[in-house]
Amino acid sequence: MSDASSGAMAPPPAKKVRSCSSSESTPNISSESHSTPGLSTTGLSSLDETTAATLIDAARRYEIEASLRHRQSQEEVSSAKEEVLAAMETLKRAHERLGKAEAVAADATKSYKVATEFKTKWELQLNVGKKPAPILSSSEHDEEQKHVSFAPQHEISGPSSIGSTGRKVKRIRIRVSEHGWGMYEGLLDSVGEPHGRGTITWENGGRYDGEWCDGKANGHGIMDYANGDRYEGKWKDGCRFGQGTHHFKDGGVYEGQWRNAAPDGQGKMTLKNGSHYEGSWKDGKWHGPGIVRPVNGGEWEGTFQLGKCTVGTLRRPNGELEIGRYESVNPDDVKEGVWWSIDRQKIWKVENGQKKEEINFVMALEIASQIGVQLPNELLKSDDC
Hints:
By secondary structure, the chain is α+β, with helices and mostly antiparallel strands.
């Protein structure tokens, strides 16, 4: 009865039994067996966030710095470009100035060449103002070596007398100033110096054949210089003096009067290219009235002073005419003057080589009068017509 009644009652709740194989108990066992003391999952997440924030902050600062450096570098690049452009512009202007300077230099070179040619031909090659060195030669060992005073780069006027007491010698070695030792053959005076007709050939190749007096060239003689020049004419005391002709080795020729080895008086110098000057000379330079005729045509007639034209009339190769005052040997270097056109119908006032303004004939006549130049007849006739 008790069983039946107990069987009729509701069964008691079943007890849960832990099982090693139960899936529900595994997480708890795993969690307990692998956990690290003092470090939880929440702690790991917190550390990662802090580190990431630090790295992000550092990255931002680096980005800002990099951006600043980038901006600065861009500014420097822009500034450098501007400097390069400015430098290129400066270089361009410098090249332009260089081109102009080279053109001016080329013109200056041409002018310098012309001036050098004038100076070389009419001053240096003529040895203007050069004086003979004194003879300081003797020999205690050779009785045939004699002293003579001879300056073949100077000159003479008038014939010399030949003494009847002179004696003929075959060969005698003597020394002459500026030329050194040479072999002389001719007449000697009583003291053994060349006197009369004689010839000397120098060891350097030069040769003089002509008249002598007291050991010096006097009278007429021919001098062949070692450099290839040749002079024929009058001599005095060993100098070119009087009428004579000097042929330069390059083809130039001077024919006229000499004094103390330099052209002095009336003479004509012709350059190898055909240009020539004819007129008055002094100490080897143009001095007084003279005419210059360049090889390219035209004519420059005026008054010169020690190599420079003071006033004159210039007829250009193209037919234009100019009257002016000058301060050099260059006809284009006119300080003031008057310029006529080819047909003589137009007249300009000239200053410093440039046409300034067109003027009439009366004004031109007044300027020419102030300069001190008389108008050529062709201008006076054309005006009358």
